[in-house]
Write a structure and sequence with these properties.
heterodimer; A: alpha+beta; Ubiquitin-like (UB roll); DNA polymerase, domain 1; 2 domains; five-stranded mixed β-sheet; 5 strands; 34% helix; globular; B: alpha+beta; Uridine Diphospho-n-acetylenolpyruvylglucosamine Reductase, domain 2; Uridine Diphospho-n-acetylenolpyruvylglucosamine Reductase, domain 3; Enolase-like, domain 1; 3 domains; four-stranded antiparallel β-sheet; 11 helices; 35% helix; binds flavin-adenine dinucleotide; binds FE2/S2 (inorganic) cluster
Protein backbone atom coordinates (compact mmCIF):
# COMPACT_ATOMS: atom_id res chain seq x y z
CA UNK A 1 0.00 0.00 0.00
CA UNK A 2 1.28 3.45 -0.88
CA UNK A 3 1.72 5.97 1.92
CA UNK A 4 0.92 9.64 1.73
CA UNK A 5 3.82 11.69 3.03
CA UNK A 6 4.72 15.37 3.32
CA UNK A 7 8.24 16.59 2.82
CA UNK A 8 9.68 20.05 2.99
CA UNK A 9 12.63 20.02 0.62
CA UNK A 10 14.83 23.11 0.52
CA UNK A 11 11.89 25.18 1.71
CA UNK A 12 9.31 23.78 -0.74
CA UNK A 13 6.41 21.64 0.52
CA UNK A 14 5.53 18.42 -1.28
CA UNK A 15 2.77 15.89 -0.77
CA UNK A 16 3.69 12.56 -2.26
CA UNK A 17 2.30 9.05 -2.56
CA UNK A 18 5.16 6.62 -2.11
CA UNK A 19 5.68 2.89 -1.78
CA UNK A 20 7.14 2.06 1.65
CA UNK A 21 10.20 0.34 0.21
CA UNK A 22 11.39 3.41 -1.69
CA UNK A 23 14.36 5.28 -0.27
CA UNK A 24 14.63 9.02 0.27
CA UNK A 25 17.36 8.97 -2.38
CA UNK A 26 14.99 7.44 -4.95
CA UNK A 27 12.18 9.85 -4.13
CA UNK A 28 14.44 12.92 -4.33
CA UNK A 29 16.01 11.86 -7.59
CA UNK A 30 13.14 10.14 -9.38
CA UNK A 31 9.99 11.83 -8.08
CA UNK A 32 11.28 15.34 -7.38
CA UNK A 33 13.93 15.36 -10.10
CA UNK A 34 16.50 16.64 -7.61
CA UNK A 35 19.41 14.73 -9.11
CA UNK A 36 22.12 16.77 -7.37
CA UNK A 37 22.08 14.16 -4.61
CA UNK A 38 23.96 11.16 -5.97
CA UNK A 39 23.66 7.41 -5.48
CA UNK A 40 27.03 5.73 -5.10
CA UNK A 41 27.39 2.55 -3.08
CA UNK A 42 23.77 2.35 -1.95
CA UNK A 43 24.77 0.79 1.37
CA UNK A 44 25.88 3.67 3.60
CA UNK A 45 29.61 3.53 2.89
CA UNK A 46 30.47 6.34 0.45
CA UNK A 47 28.52 9.44 1.51
CA UNK A 48 27.59 10.51 -2.05
CA UNK A 49 23.91 10.49 -1.07
CA UNK A 50 24.25 12.65 2.06
CA UNK A 51 21.40 15.07 2.78
CA UNK A 52 20.25 16.82 5.95
CA UNK A 53 17.04 15.67 7.65
CA UNK A 54 15.84 18.14 10.31
CA UNK A 55 19.37 19.49 10.29
CA UNK A 56 21.16 16.15 10.73
CA UNK A 57 23.34 14.61 8.03
CA UNK A 58 22.14 11.15 6.95
CA UNK A 59 22.68 8.70 4.11
CA UNK A 60 19.60 9.03 1.89
CA UNK A 61 20.31 5.65 0.22
CA UNK A 62 19.43 3.71 3.38
CA UNK A 63 16.73 6.07 4.64
CA UNK A 64 13.14 5.17 3.79
CA UNK A 65 11.07 8.04 2.38
CA UNK A 66 8.14 7.03 4.62
CA UNK A 67 10.42 7.32 7.64
CA UNK A 68 11.03 11.03 7.03
CA UNK A 69 7.36 11.96 6.66
CA UNK A 70 6.87 15.51 7.96
CA UNK A 71 10.54 16.36 8.05
CA UNK A 72 12.64 19.15 6.64
CA UNK A 73 15.10 17.95 4.00
CA UNK A 74 18.07 19.95 2.74
CA UNK A 75 19.87 18.87 -0.43
CA UNK A 76 22.71 20.37 -2.44
CA UNK A 77 20.14 22.17 -4.61
CA UNK A 78 19.24 24.25 -1.57
CA UNK A 79 22.79 25.49 -1.04
CA UNK A 80 22.60 28.12 -3.73
CA UNK A 81 19.06 29.05 -2.90
CA UNK A 82 18.68 31.73 -5.57
CA UNK A 83 20.07 29.38 -8.21
CA UNK A 84 22.62 32.06 -9.03
CA UNK A 85 24.81 33.10 -6.14
CA UNK A 86 26.80 30.11 -4.90
CA UNK A 87 27.04 29.19 -1.21
CA UNK A 88 30.46 29.97 0.37
CA UNK A 89 31.09 26.21 0.66
CA UNK A 90 30.56 25.86 -3.09
CA UNK A 91 32.78 28.86 -3.83
CA UNK A 92 35.54 27.35 -1.72
CA UNK A 93 35.23 23.92 -3.35
CA UNK A 94 35.67 25.50 -6.77
CA UNK A 95 38.47 27.80 -5.76
CA UNK A 96 40.50 25.15 -3.91
CA UNK A 97 40.22 22.57 -6.70
CA UNK A 98 38.20 20.24 -4.48
CA UNK A 99 36.08 19.00 -7.40
CA UNK A 100 37.29 16.69 -10.14
CA UNK A 101 34.64 14.30 -11.47
CA UNK A 102 32.20 15.81 -8.97
CA UNK A 103 30.41 12.62 -8.00
CA UNK A 104 31.26 12.93 -4.32
CA UNK A 105 30.83 16.72 -4.20
CA UNK A 106 27.17 17.10 -3.27
CA UNK A 107 27.56 14.74 -0.34
CA UNK A 108 30.82 16.33 0.77
CA UNK A 109 29.24 19.80 0.68
CA UNK A 110 26.24 18.70 2.74
CA UNK A 111 28.54 17.19 5.36
CA UNK A 112 30.59 20.39 5.30
CA UNK A 113 27.39 22.38 5.92
CA UNK A 114 26.47 20.08 8.82
CA UNK A 115 29.95 20.38 10.31
CA UNK A 116 30.26 24.16 9.96
CA UNK A 117 26.85 24.80 11.50
CA UNK A 118 27.85 22.74 14.55
CA UNK A 119 31.42 23.91 14.67
CA UNK A 120 32.15 27.17 12.80
CA UNK A 121 35.93 26.92 13.42
CA UNK A 122 36.90 23.26 12.98
CA UNK A 123 40.50 22.07 13.20
CA UNK A 124 41.92 20.04 10.32
CA UNK A 125 41.46 16.91 12.45
CA UNK A 126 37.79 17.80 13.02
CA UNK A 127 37.24 18.42 9.31
CA UNK A 128 38.78 15.04 8.45
CA UNK A 129 36.65 13.37 11.09
CA UNK A 130 33.57 15.10 9.68
CA UNK A 131 34.39 13.63 6.27
CA UNK A 132 35.05 10.10 7.51
CA UNK A 133 31.77 8.90 6.00
CA UNK A 134 32.79 10.01 2.48
CA UNK A 135 34.83 8.49 -0.30
CA UNK A 136 36.40 10.48 -3.12
CA UNK A 137 38.12 8.58 -5.91
CA UNK A 138 39.72 11.65 -7.50
CA UNK A 139 41.04 14.42 -5.30
CA UNK A 140 43.00 12.65 -2.58
CA UNK A 141 40.92 14.60 -0.02
CA UNK A 142 43.48 17.33 0.78
CA UNK A 143 41.80 19.94 -1.43
CA UNK A 144 38.44 19.10 0.11
CA UNK A 145 39.80 19.61 3.61
CA UNK A 146 41.35 22.92 2.50
CA UNK A 147 38.09 23.98 0.88
CA UNK A 148 36.13 23.40 4.07
CA UNK A 149 38.66 25.34 6.16
CA UNK A 150 38.40 28.15 3.60
CA UNK A 151 34.60 27.99 3.67
CA UNK A 152 34.68 28.30 7.45
CA UNK A 153 36.55 31.61 7.08
CA UNK A 154 34.21 32.85 4.35
CA UNK A 155 31.11 31.98 6.33
CA UNK A 156 32.40 33.90 9.32
CA UNK A 157 33.05 36.95 7.16
CA UNK A 158 29.72 36.57 5.36
CA UNK A 159 27.93 36.23 8.65
CA UNK A 160 29.35 39.60 9.55
CA UNK A 161 27.49 40.88 6.49
CA UNK A 162 24.27 39.24 7.68
CA UNK A 163 24.26 36.31 5.23
CA UNK A 164 22.67 33.18 6.70
CA UNK A 165 24.91 30.06 6.83
CA UNK B 1 20.29 -1.25 -4.85
CA UNK B 2 16.52 -1.53 -4.76
CA UNK B 3 14.81 -2.73 -1.63
CA UNK B 4 12.37 -5.64 -1.87
CA UNK B 5 8.70 -4.84 -1.24
CA UNK B 6 7.25 -4.65 2.27
CA UNK B 7 4.55 -2.92 4.28
CA UNK B 8 5.36 -0.27 6.85
CA UNK B 9 3.76 1.06 10.00
CA UNK B 10 4.98 3.83 12.28
CA UNK B 11 3.16 3.50 15.61
CA UNK B 12 3.13 6.44 18.03
CA UNK B 13 3.10 4.37 21.24
CA UNK B 14 4.84 1.27 22.56
CA UNK B 15 1.47 -0.50 22.98
CA UNK B 16 0.63 0.02 19.31
CA UNK B 17 4.09 -1.21 18.30
CA UNK B 18 3.73 -4.36 20.42
CA UNK B 19 0.30 -5.01 18.93
CA UNK B 20 1.62 -4.59 15.39
CA UNK B 21 4.61 -6.80 16.13
CA UNK B 22 2.46 -9.59 17.56
CA UNK B 23 -0.15 -9.35 14.80
CA UNK B 24 2.52 -9.12 12.11
CA UNK B 25 3.72 -12.67 12.71
CA UNK B 26 6.84 -14.26 11.23
CA UNK B 27 7.59 -11.72 8.49
CA UNK B 28 7.46 -8.73 10.79
CA UNK B 29 10.59 -6.84 11.91
CA UNK B 30 11.36 -3.79 13.97
CA UNK B 31 13.01 -0.86 12.22
CA UNK B 32 15.11 1.56 14.25
CA UNK B 33 17.79 3.50 12.33
CA UNK B 34 17.82 0.89 9.57
CA UNK B 35 21.59 1.10 9.14
CA UNK B 36 21.89 -2.66 9.53
CA UNK B 37 18.42 -3.71 8.43
CA UNK B 38 18.21 -1.68 5.18
CA UNK B 39 21.64 -2.89 4.10
CA UNK B 40 20.79 -6.53 4.87
CA UNK B 41 17.42 -6.27 3.10
CA UNK B 42 19.06 -4.61 0.12
CA UNK B 43 21.52 -7.48 -0.14
CA UNK B 44 18.70 -10.02 0.23
CA UNK B 45 20.17 -11.33 3.50
CA UNK B 46 17.09 -10.52 5.57
CA UNK B 47 13.48 -10.74 4.42
CA UNK B 48 10.53 -8.89 5.92
CA UNK B 49 6.92 -8.42 4.84
CA UNK B 50 6.19 -5.73 7.43
CA UNK B 51 8.45 -3.19 9.13
CA UNK B 52 7.37 -1.62 12.42
CA UNK B 53 9.27 1.65 12.83
CA UNK B 54 10.01 2.63 16.43
CA UNK B 55 11.62 6.04 16.03
CA UNK B 56 8.26 7.82 16.17
CA UNK B 57 7.56 6.47 19.68
CA UNK B 58 8.16 9.41 21.99
CA UNK B 59 8.59 7.27 25.11
CA UNK B 60 11.55 5.40 23.62
CA UNK B 61 13.60 8.56 23.13
CA UNK B 62 16.07 10.12 25.49
CA UNK B 63 18.92 9.71 27.92
CA UNK B 64 18.30 10.01 31.65
CA UNK B 65 20.93 10.07 34.37
CA UNK B 66 20.35 9.73 38.09
CA UNK B 67 23.43 9.57 40.36
CA UNK B 68 21.91 6.77 42.48
CA UNK B 69 20.18 4.74 39.76
CA UNK B 70 22.55 5.31 36.86
CA UNK B 71 22.01 5.83 33.16
CA UNK B 72 18.99 4.92 31.06
CA UNK B 73 19.16 5.11 27.28
CA UNK B 74 15.87 4.73 25.42
CA UNK B 75 15.78 2.35 22.46
CA UNK B 76 15.15 5.09 19.89
CA UNK B 77 18.14 7.17 21.08
CA UNK B 78 20.71 7.84 18.38
CA UNK B 79 24.35 6.81 18.78
CA UNK B 80 25.22 10.47 18.03
CA UNK B 81 23.15 11.56 21.04
CA UNK B 82 24.94 9.04 23.30
CA UNK B 83 28.34 10.23 22.05
CA UNK B 84 27.58 13.89 22.80
CA UNK B 85 25.43 13.78 25.92
CA UNK B 86 27.03 15.79 28.77
CA UNK B 87 26.19 13.22 31.49
CA UNK B 88 27.48 10.33 29.39
CA UNK B 89 30.69 12.24 28.66
CA UNK B 90 31.15 13.11 32.32
CA UNK B 91 30.09 9.95 34.14
CA UNK B 92 30.47 7.29 31.42
CA UNK B 93 33.47 8.39 29.33
CA UNK B 94 34.16 4.89 28.01
CA UNK B 95 30.54 4.52 26.86
CA UNK B 96 30.83 7.87 25.05
CA UNK B 97 34.16 6.75 23.56
CA UNK B 98 32.59 3.62 22.06
CA UNK B 99 29.61 5.55 20.68
CA UNK B 100 31.88 8.18 19.15
CA UNK B 101 33.98 5.47 17.53
CA UNK B 102 30.99 3.74 15.94
CA UNK B 103 30.75 4.15 12.14
CA UNK B 104 30.73 7.73 10.75
CA UNK B 105 28.79 10.95 11.29
CA UNK B 106 25.85 10.12 9.01
CA UNK B 107 25.44 6.60 10.39
CA UNK B 108 25.64 7.87 14.00
CA UNK B 109 22.90 10.37 13.12
CA UNK B 110 20.63 7.50 12.00
CA UNK B 111 21.60 4.47 14.07
CA UNK B 112 20.44 3.66 17.59
CA UNK B 113 22.47 2.21 20.43
CA UNK B 114 19.77 -0.43 20.96
CA UNK B 115 19.97 -1.40 17.27
CA UNK B 116 23.71 -1.96 17.65
CA UNK B 117 23.01 -4.49 20.41
CA UNK B 118 19.94 -6.10 18.79
CA UNK B 119 21.78 -6.58 15.51
CA UNK B 120 24.20 -8.73 17.57
CA UNK B 121 27.23 -8.45 15.31
CA UNK B 122 30.25 -10.01 17.06
CA UNK B 123 32.02 -6.70 16.28
CA UNK B 124 29.28 -4.38 17.64
CA UNK B 125 31.34 -1.47 18.92
CA UNK B 126 29.12 -0.59 21.85
CA UNK B 127 28.80 -4.10 23.27
CA UNK B 128 32.17 -4.60 25.03
CA UNK B 129 32.09 -1.46 27.12
CA UNK B 130 28.44 -1.98 28.07
CA UNK B 131 29.26 -5.57 29.09
CA UNK B 132 32.24 -4.33 31.10
CA UNK B 133 30.06 -1.70 32.82
CA UNK B 134 27.49 -4.34 33.81
CA UNK B 135 24.67 -2.99 31.64
CA UNK B 136 21.18 -4.48 31.62
CA UNK B 137 18.43 -4.23 29.05
CA UNK B 138 14.70 -3.80 29.59
CA UNK B 139 12.58 -5.90 27.29
CA UNK B 140 8.82 -5.55 26.81
CA UNK B 141 6.18 -7.70 25.12
CA UNK B 142 2.39 -7.80 25.36
CA UNK B 143 2.88 -10.39 28.11
CA UNK B 144 4.94 -8.11 30.31
CA UNK B 145 8.32 -6.57 31.07
CA UNK B 146 11.58 -8.28 31.95
CA UNK B 147 15.07 -7.04 32.64
CA UNK B 148 18.12 -9.04 31.69
CA UNK B 149 21.83 -8.69 32.03
CA UNK B 150 23.67 -7.95 28.81
CA UNK B 151 25.79 -10.99 29.76
CA UNK B 152 22.76 -13.16 28.92
CA UNK B 153 21.66 -11.25 25.80
CA UNK B 154 23.82 -12.46 22.91
CA UNK B 155 23.36 -16.01 21.56
CA UNK B 156 25.35 -15.98 18.32
CA UNK B 157 26.03 -13.81 15.27
CA UNK B 158 22.73 -11.95 14.70
CA UNK B 159 21.09 -13.98 17.47
CA UNK B 160 19.82 -12.60 20.77
CA UNK B 161 17.66 -13.66 23.71
CA UNK B 162 14.82 -11.49 22.34
CA UNK B 163 11.65 -13.38 21.40
CA UNK B 164 9.99 -12.37 18.14
CA UNK B 165 7.27 -10.37 19.90
CA UNK B 166 9.62 -8.47 22.22
CA UNK B 167 11.01 -4.95 22.00
CA UNK B 168 14.14 -3.79 23.78
CA UNK B 169 12.93 -0.55 25.37
CA UNK B 170 15.94 0.76 27.28
CA UNK B 171 19.57 0.12 28.13
CA UNK B 172 20.46 0.59 31.79
CA UNK B 173 23.99 1.22 33.03
CA UNK B 174 24.66 1.33 36.79
CA UNK B 175 26.43 4.36 38.27
CA UNK B 176 30.21 4.10 38.51
CA UNK B 177 31.46 2.87 41.88
CA UNK B 178 33.87 5.05 43.87
CA UNK B 179 37.47 4.76 42.65
CA UNK B 180 36.46 2.85 39.53
CA UNK B 181 37.41 3.36 35.91
CA UNK B 182 36.49 2.01 32.49
CA UNK B 183 38.06 2.12 29.04
CA UNK B 184 37.29 1.26 25.44
CA UNK B 185 40.05 0.36 22.98
CA UNK B 186 39.77 -0.78 19.39
CA UNK B 187 41.63 -1.33 16.19
CA UNK B 188 40.26 -1.41 12.67
CA UNK B 189 41.81 -2.06 9.29
CA UNK B 190 41.23 1.43 7.86
CA UNK B 191 42.33 3.72 10.65
CA UNK B 192 39.63 5.06 12.90
CA UNK B 193 36.38 4.86 11.03
CA UNK B 194 35.96 1.25 10.07
CA UNK B 195 34.15 -1.60 11.77
CA UNK B 196 36.48 -2.87 14.50
CA UNK B 197 38.75 -5.84 13.83
CA UNK B 198 39.11 -6.19 17.59
CA UNK B 199 37.59 -4.13 20.40
CA UNK B 200 37.96 -4.34 24.16
CA UNK B 201 36.01 -2.86 27.07
CA UNK B 202 37.35 -2.92 30.62
CA UNK B 203 36.00 -1.87 33.99
CA UNK B 204 37.72 -2.10 37.38
CA UNK B 205 37.64 -0.63 40.87
CA UNK B 206 40.31 0.10 43.44
CA UNK B 207 39.66 -1.07 46.98
CA UNK B 208 42.69 0.33 48.81
CA UNK B 209 45.46 -0.96 46.59
CA UNK B 210 43.53 -4.08 45.61
CA UNK B 211 41.67 -4.44 42.29
CA UNK B 212 38.00 -5.38 42.45
CA UNK B 213 35.05 -5.87 40.06
CA UNK B 214 37.38 -6.48 37.15
CA UNK B 215 35.40 -6.99 33.95
CA UNK B 216 37.03 -7.52 30.58
CA UNK B 217 34.85 -7.80 27.47
CA UNK B 218 36.08 -8.56 23.97
CA UNK B 219 34.46 -7.84 20.60
CA UNK B 220 34.97 -9.35 17.13
CA UNK B 221 36.94 -12.33 18.44
CA UNK B 222 34.14 -14.87 19.06
CA UNK B 223 30.61 -15.58 17.71
CA UNK B 224 29.32 -13.03 20.23
CA UNK B 225 30.82 -10.22 22.28
CA UNK B 226 32.37 -12.14 25.20
CA UNK B 227 33.75 -11.77 28.73
CA UNK B 228 37.30 -12.96 29.36
CA UNK B 229 36.46 -14.47 32.74
CA UNK B 230 39.75 -16.27 33.39
CA UNK B 231 41.68 -13.07 32.75
CA UNK B 232 39.30 -11.22 35.08
CA UNK B 233 39.88 -13.82 37.82
CA UNK B 234 43.66 -13.36 37.57
CA UNK B 235 43.28 -9.68 38.41
CA UNK B 236 40.45 -9.81 40.93
CA UNK B 237 41.79 -9.14 44.44
CA UNK B 238 45.36 -8.56 43.21
CA UNK B 239 47.52 -5.44 43.42
CA UNK B 240 48.09 -3.36 40.26
CA UNK B 241 51.37 -3.80 38.43
CA UNK B 242 52.38 -3.55 34.81
CA UNK B 243 53.56 -7.14 34.90
CA UNK B 244 50.12 -8.24 36.10
CA UNK B 245 48.40 -6.21 33.36
CA UNK B 246 50.65 -7.95 30.83
CA UNK B 247 49.82 -11.38 32.22
CA UNK B 248 46.07 -10.69 32.32
CA UNK B 249 46.16 -9.43 28.72
CA UNK B 250 47.90 -12.60 27.59
CA UNK B 251 45.21 -14.66 29.32
CA UNK B 252 42.45 -12.65 27.59
CA UNK B 253 44.16 -13.36 24.29
CA UNK B 254 44.19 -17.11 25.09
CA UNK B 255 40.50 -17.01 25.90
CA UNK B 256 39.53 -15.30 22.64
CA UNK B 257 38.31 -17.47 19.77
CA UNK B 258 38.84 -15.34 16.67
CA UNK B 259 38.38 -16.32 13.04
CA UNK B 260 40.10 -15.05 9.92
CA UNK B 261 37.91 -12.81 7.73
CA UNK B 262 38.16 -9.77 5.44
CA UNK B 263 39.04 -7.48 8.31
CA UNK B 264 41.89 -9.43 9.93
CA UNK B 265 43.46 -12.85 10.42
CA UNK B 266 42.81 -14.92 13.53
CA UNK B 267 46.49 -14.69 14.45
CA UNK B 268 46.54 -10.88 14.22
CA UNK B 269 43.31 -10.62 16.20
CA UNK B 270 44.68 -12.81 18.98
CA UNK B 271 47.73 -10.58 19.30
CA UNK B 272 45.64 -7.42 19.22
CA UNK B 273 43.43 -8.72 22.04
CA UNK B 274 46.50 -8.76 24.22
CA UNK B 275 47.70 -5.28 23.13
CA UNK B 276 44.27 -3.65 23.44
CA UNK B 277 43.44 -5.34 26.74
CA UNK B 278 46.65 -4.00 28.22
CA UNK B 279 45.89 -0.48 26.97
CA UNK B 280 42.33 -0.70 28.30
CA UNK B 281 43.49 -1.95 31.71
CA UNK B 282 46.01 0.86 31.92
CA UNK B 283 43.48 3.55 31.01
CA UNK B 284 40.81 2.10 33.32
CA UNK B 285 43.35 1.93 36.16
CA UNK B 286 44.47 5.52 35.56
CA UNK B 287 40.84 6.67 35.57
CA UNK B 288 40.18 4.72 38.79
CA UNK B 289 43.14 6.44 40.46
CA UNK B 290 41.82 9.79 39.22
CA UNK B 291 38.35 9.03 40.58
CA UNK B 292 39.70 8.05 43.99
CA UNK B 293 38.78 11.30 45.65
CA UNK B 294 35.50 11.86 43.80
C1 LIG C 1 28.56 2.42 6.64
C2 LIG C 1 28.27 1.70 7.93
C3 LIG C 1 29.26 1.69 8.91
C4 LIG C 1 29.03 1.02 10.11
N1 LIG C 1 30.02 1.05 11.05
C5 LIG C 1 29.83 0.42 12.23
C6 LIG C 1 30.85 0.44 13.22
O1 LIG C 1 31.92 1.05 13.05
N2 LIG C 1 30.62 -0.24 14.38
C7 LIG C 1 29.45 -0.91 14.61
O2 LIG C 1 29.31 -1.49 15.68
N3 LIG C 1 28.46 -0.93 13.69
C8 LIG C 1 28.63 -0.29 12.51
N4 LIG C 1 27.62 -0.32 11.57
C9 LIG C 1 26.39 -1.09 11.84
C10 LIG C 1 25.17 -0.30 12.34
O3 LIG C 1 25.24 1.04 11.98
C11 LIG C 1 24.99 -0.38 13.87
O4 LIG C 1 24.92 -1.73 14.27
C12 LIG C 1 23.74 0.38 14.34
O5 LIG C 1 23.87 0.68 15.71
C13 LIG C 1 22.43 -0.33 14.11
O6 LIG C 1 21.38 0.46 14.68
P1 LIG C 1 20.05 0.82 13.84
O7 LIG C 1 19.23 1.67 14.75
O8 LIG C 1 20.37 1.35 12.53
O9 LIG C 1 19.42 -0.65 13.72
P2 LIG C 1 18.44 -1.27 12.62
O10 LIG C 1 19.17 -1.53 11.37
O11 LIG C 1 17.18 -0.49 12.54
O12 LIG C 1 18.12 -2.65 13.35
C14 LIG C 1 19.10 -3.65 13.54
C15 LIG C 1 18.42 -4.94 14.03
O13 LIG C 1 17.98 -4.80 15.39
C16 LIG C 1 16.57 -4.95 15.48
N5 LIG C 1 16.14 -3.93 16.44
C17 LIG C 1 16.42 -2.60 16.36
N6 LIG C 1 15.93 -1.97 17.46
C18 LIG C 1 15.34 -2.91 18.22
C19 LIG C 1 14.67 -2.88 19.50
N7 LIG C 1 14.51 -1.74 20.19
N8 LIG C 1 14.19 -4.05 20.00
C20 LIG C 1 14.35 -5.21 19.32
N9 LIG C 1 14.98 -5.30 18.12
C21 LIG C 1 15.47 -4.17 17.58
C22 LIG C 1 16.04 -4.77 14.07
O14 LIG C 1 14.84 -5.49 13.88
C23 LIG C 1 17.18 -5.32 13.23
O15 LIG C 1 17.12 -6.71 13.17
C24 LIG C 1 27.80 0.35 10.35
C25 LIG C 1 26.81 0.38 9.37
C26 LIG C 1 27.02 1.05 8.16
C27 LIG C 1 25.94 1.07 7.13
S1 LIG D 1 25.17 6.01 -1.85
FE1 LIG D 1 24.54 6.30 0.15
S2 LIG D 1 26.36 6.10 1.25
FE2 LIG D 1 26.97 5.50 -0.74
S1 LIG E 1 35.79 14.38 -7.25
FE1 LIG E 1 35.53 12.45 -8.15
S2 LIG E 1 34.86 11.25 -6.48
FE2 LIG E 1 35.44 13.06 -5.53
Amino acid sequence: MKHQIRLNVNGDDYELLVDPWRTLNEVLREDLNLTGTKLGCGVGDCGACTVLVDGKSVSSCITLAVAVDGKKIETVEGLAASGEKLHPIQESFIEKGAIQCGFCTAGMEMSALYLLRKNPSPTEEEIREGLSGHLCRCTGYNQIVEAIADAADRMKTDRGKGVKP
Amino acid sequence: MRLPKFDYVAPKTLDEALKALTAGGEGCRLLAGGTDLMVKMGHGLTAASLLVAIKGIEGLHGIRFDPSKGLSIGAATLIAEVAEHPDVLKYYPAVAQAARKTANTQIRNMATLAGNLCNAAPSADNAPVLLARGAEVEVVSQKGTRQLSLDDFFNGPGQTELARDEILTQILVPPAAKASGASYQWISPRGKVDISAVCVGVNLRLDGDVLKDVRIALGAVAPTPMRATEAEALMEGAKWSEALAEQVSAKASEESRPITDVRASAEYRRRMVSVLTRRALEEAHARAVENWGV
